[in-house]
């Protein structure tokens, strides 16, 4: 059986110096191995990676699924396996797949969110599909409007209804992450909008991770009475993800450290008092930190006890293996370094692969004629990626 067109698109094999050989005795983060048959019973028809150079090398295959996008920001999957992708500056929502075209997956414009006022780092950002989408056909978006950042719900093709407004907006630090947690509640990551006082003020929505119901109300069992705030002391969180029941977030630092944090209910992550790790026990230290020039990461995904974060200034993915208790195992490993330029959105697909979007049209990159692109990443010999 021949490969479908999107898998016949240009594929790139990338060697990754990883710790999977040592992980076999300690964790299952790189143990996925041979793909399983798909639900229809046919074996997956994926490109076969070349052999690894030695036992210490991990290899990945990157396939270009779509191109010609403009500043893709968020990725959320539909029950049919296709994905909704937001474009920050245009305010468009496009559907990518599941149908294919001669150049990859079919890209269809679904709608433009008319209320979006894109400027600087603001615009149409996060997107989340309702866990009950098959019944309610509902999608949630996080976007910059005329006076604020806000979260709205909509059915595709219909006007959005705001459910949470008043998130501070600015040319920078707008946050924008949006995802449903394992508990069925909607989480949103916000930035301090350039005002550092926001992050420690529980009466303000900036510099926080929020937890709300699908109707926009503070979720039950939130740590602060009648408040949507789940955690505070953040500078500019964008990507959020769960590995099992543990929540993680990636955060832009100022000049020194970018970080990944494990997010715990009601905890304070220190901004603006602390950037990166500190000695004050009232603030939570990151599990990983990098210098800003090799990170500045936006998107975050979790798959098979591994965190993957997509980085803008660093122009790479960082892969972080986790132990059974959620701590970091070994050293983070870099992938795709400077191969596709700035990387922003990343999501774990239903088949276990990772979808990654470039962000070279965001005013800070050097776009190639194909940009912006949407990639599918599969690891060889175990790790993320099944068909």
UniProtKB/TrEMBL annotation:
Domain Glucose/Sorbosone dehydrogenase: residue ranges: 70-364
Chain intervals for the UniProt region annotation (Disordered): 33-56
Domain of life the protein comes from: Bacteria
Biased composition annotated in UniProt, kind: Pro residues: 38-47
Keyword Magnesium carried by entry: no
Annotated keywords: Signal
Alphabetized Gene3D superfamilies for the sequence: TolB, C-terminal domain (2.120.10.30)
Signal peptide coordinates: 1-26
Pfam families from the UniProt entry: GSDH
Name used for this protein in its record: Glucose/arabinose dehydrogenase, beta-propeller fold
